[in-house]
Design a protein that fits this description.
alpha+beta, nine-stranded antiparallel sheet, 2 helices, 9 strands
């Protein structure tokens, strides 16, 4: 070939041309190295995709719980002073306990008794809600319409407290797939599962110092321990009544 082109076989040009080509061994080594690199990159890529999927599932599961706790925390922090069995302005009852019967107008479709009924100043004025910011909020469980055997946590809101007709109750779905919900009130020494300020003969006529909410999830999200939320209550009812001593002064 070199002789046909007029180049001697032992010339430097012919030697340089022969060294520019890849041998079969070099090609096999290059393909092997590329395959190893691709396998390593694929492993890292699939691990990252798997991690993103797991993280997305965790976030999707925790987001509804965080939203429910946001509503619970805001409602409990803004509770108004209790009535203590009497009629007072800018006040309302505070009742907690499994099996309580909601007073006044109840929401439709309640499959179980409410677990909490409070009056809180979390209502916002609007064109469709021209009432005061005090509203009655009831937390209750209802049978799930999507999954058989599970229950959902609802937040029922009554805004028009002075209505002479049947008022509208807004039922808001807070959390799906709930096994149980329990409210506990702290009186300064211990946690009590029942708290009712509407009864004038009860010992607990004031607001508790703190409220603990325990939510037990159901189904695949069920854990060994329930999810807990503790909210301190800053509102304390003071009395301006004159206290008489034993001498009558």
């Amino acid at each position: 070939m070199a002789a046909a082109l007029g180049v001697a076989a032992d010339s430097p040009f012919a030697i340089r041309r022969s060294k520019c080509a890849f041998t079969l061994v070099e090609m096999i080594l290059a393909i092997g190295v590329a395959a190893i690199v691709l396998v390593a990159v694929s492993a890292v890529l699939f691990s990252a995709l798997r991690l993103r999927e797991v993280t997305t599932n965790v976030v999707d599961t925790a987001t509804p719980v965080d939203q429910a706790f946001t509503f619970l925390r805001r409602d409990l922090q803004c509770v108004v002073t209790p009535t203590n069995g009497t009629s007072k302005f800018l006040s309302g009852s505070f009742r907690v306990g499994t099996g309580i019967t909601s007073t006044g107008i109840t929401s439709t479709g309640v499959s179980e008794p409410a677990v909490a009924e409070i009056f809180t100043a979390t209502g916002a004025l609007g064109a469709n809600a021209p009432w005061a910011d005090i509203q009655r909020v009831t937390y209750e469980l209802k049978n799930s319409t999507a999954v058989s055997g599970q229950r959902d946590l609802y937040r029922s809101v009554l805004r028009n407290l002075l209505s002479t007709t049947t008022p509208f109750v807004d039922n808001q779905l807070l959390l799906s797939g709930v096994a149980s919900v329990k409210f506990s009130c702290f009186d300064g020494t211990q946690w009590q599962e029942v708290w009712d300020t509407t009864d004038p003969t009860t010992v607990n006529t004031n607001l508790p110092l703190a409220v603990r909410v325990e939510i037990q999830l159901a189904g695949a999200n069920r854990t060994a321990q329930p999810i807990q939320l503790v909210v301190p209550i800053d509102s304390v009812t003071r009395t301006n009544m004159v206290l008489f001593s034993a001498t009558g002064n």
